[in-house]
Write a structure and sequence with these properties.
2 domains, single chain, disordered C terminus, mainly alpha
């Protein structure tokens, strides 16, 4: 049996009307009934409280410490890796913002410090400063470092790449804070480390 154009039109119209009825029915049901959410969760979830201004604690790391990586980091390699960031950020002094803020002078600066950029509430309310450790957590996974922020970048997984980017950010920060000192096995800062 061959279908003529009228039969095809009826089938297509029937599908469209069914979809429209389903969509309008869902909308109407949402308008009629508002779900009641409980005041307390049905079962407790144990979550460690994170003080404001403190970076989220990373999972147990293997490999060199951040201080050791920063001591050997290359700002030139960081400049190349920063190319991934340059789609959204500028770094030159006085350059404007893009999707993300200008990052000139970010190392040691307060989080969400630029008055000419509309930061997410998560960043505005976080507090603290962009320490080397916080930058490392942020560059590794922005969504995990400060939950609720608007940054879409997934992060850099390799610790060496993050250290190189931080070295590049440091090179573009006037009077940056000193590099963290490496700790020896006894827990005291290694002499001469900067």
């Amino acid at each position: 049996m061959a279908w003529d154009i009228m039969e095809v039109n009826k089938v297509v119209a029937g599908i469209l009307v069914a979809g429209l009825v389903a969509k309008l029915g869902g909308w109407f049901a949402d308008e009629l009934i508002e779900p009641e959410l409980p005041d307390k969760p049905a079962y407790p979830v144990a979550v460690a409280e994170q003080p404001a201004g403190q970076p989220a604690q990373p999972e147990a790391k293997k490999g060199p410490s951040l201080a050791a990586l920063l001591a050997q980091a290359s700002a030139e390699k960081g400049r190349k890796i920063f190319g991934k960031c340059a789609a959204c950020h500028t770094i030159a002094e006085g350059a404007g913002n893009r999707i993300g803020p200008n990052l000139h002078g970010i190392v040691g600066a307060p989080i969400a410090h630029r008055s000419d950029f509309a930061y997410s509430d998560a960043l505005k309310n976080h507090g603290g400063t962009w320490t080397y450790e916080m930058l490392d957590h942020w560059i590794a996974n922005p969504r995990k470092a400060i939950p609720g922020n608007k940054m879409a970048f997934a992060g850099l997984k390799r610790a060496k790449d993050r250290a190189d980017v931080i070295a590049y950010l440091r090179a573009n920060t006037p009077n940056p804070p000193p590099l963290p000192a490496e700790e020896d096995e006894g827990g005291s800062a290694a002499e001469g480390a900067q």
